[in-house]
Specification:
single chain, about 280 residues, alpha/beta, 434 Repressor (Amino-terminal Domain), Endonuclease, Chain A, 2 domains, elongated
């Protein structure tokens, strides 16, 4: 083939994406322009992706999955894109986010930091900047992770929005991230979140003591087919759990957590008092 550039998928994750894109297209007998018409891009754009001159985007990856008939599968290009863009994230997290973007219900719990779906951009940037300062990720990776978070948040805004329940340990609202102005805007965002018709926000106060059932992040998803997925983290990796025998105990503990946590009204009052600087 004239001007055909040979690809080395081992050279980088981006090159591996391009090589897989080319092989998937050629396996179906499509020219670059034919695939481009299916996904809403130009043939030149397809060429640039295949040869690694351009990085893929989430939008392109999802359009490609639809064209190839592999949307929502373990072999999706969206999954590959998540791994490419977020290689510094814990194992299992990109797959979890794919499920989160399609879930009918979300139940989130977090300790010490506001969970991603509720973070402002400035708060997220401050969190990622701390990772850069510690040397765990690069500045470029930090920027990509913030952009990915914004896309993750956008996936939750749909014609039929999911029900989102969030229980925050009191440490989440008392731990200052990014300075007073960033934190005040973040607390204001929590109040705005609580006012939406499809959300519930509760604070698990320090007074709960040993009755708080979780010590780390726990996310529970109810998918559109009513199956459930759980995601939990250790210091070194994330775990995505689908087995109902493992998920149900977490759901039960989450309900117990809600029963002991403050009501939404009391939680919002605590946040507003904190914003005013009162105990």
């Amino acid at each position: 083939m004239v001007n055909r550039k040979e690809l080395n998928p081992e050279s980088s994750p981006q090159a591996a994406f391009g090589a897989r894109l080319r092989s998937s297209r050629e396996a179906r007998g499509w020219k670059q322009d034919e695939l481009a018409a299916l996904v809403g891009y130009s043939g030149r754009h397809i060429s640039a992706l295949e040869t690694g001159r351009k990085p893929p985007t989430l939008r392109f990856s999802r359009s490609l999955d639809t064209a190839l008939g592999i949307a929502g599968t373990a072999d999706s290009f969206e999954s590959t894109w998540g791994e490419l863009r977020n290689g510094s994230l814990l194992e299992g997290f990109p797959e979890y986010v794919r499920h989160e973007g399609r879930a009918a219900e979300l139940r989130l719990f977090e300790v010490g930091v506001i969970p991603g779906p509720l973070q402002t951009r400035q708060y997220a940037e401050a969190v990622e900047a701390s990772h850069v300062k510690r040397g765990s990720i690069t500045t470029e990776q930090a920027s990509e992770r913030v952009d990915f978070l914004i896309e993750r948040q956008a996936a939750l805004v749909r014609a039929l929005s999911p029900l989102v329940t969030v229980v925050l340990d009191e440490s989440c609202i008392r731990r200052t991230v990014g300075g007073p102005h960033v934190m005040d805007a973040q607390l204001r965002r929590l109040v705005e979140f609580s006012e939406q018709s499809n959300t519930l926000l509760q604070i698990a106060p320090f007074a709960m003591g040993e009755w708080r059932p979780f010590n780390r992040l726990v996310n529970l998803l109810t998918l559109t087919d009513r199956s459930m997925v759980a995601y939990v983290e250790s210091e070194t990796r994330g775990y995505l759990e689908r087995e109902i025998t493992s998920v149900l105990p977490l759901v039960r503990a989450y309900h117990q957590l809600q029963a002991e946590a403050l009501s939404q009204a009391a939680s919002v009052a605590m946040i507003n008092q904190l914003r005013k600087g009162t105990p």
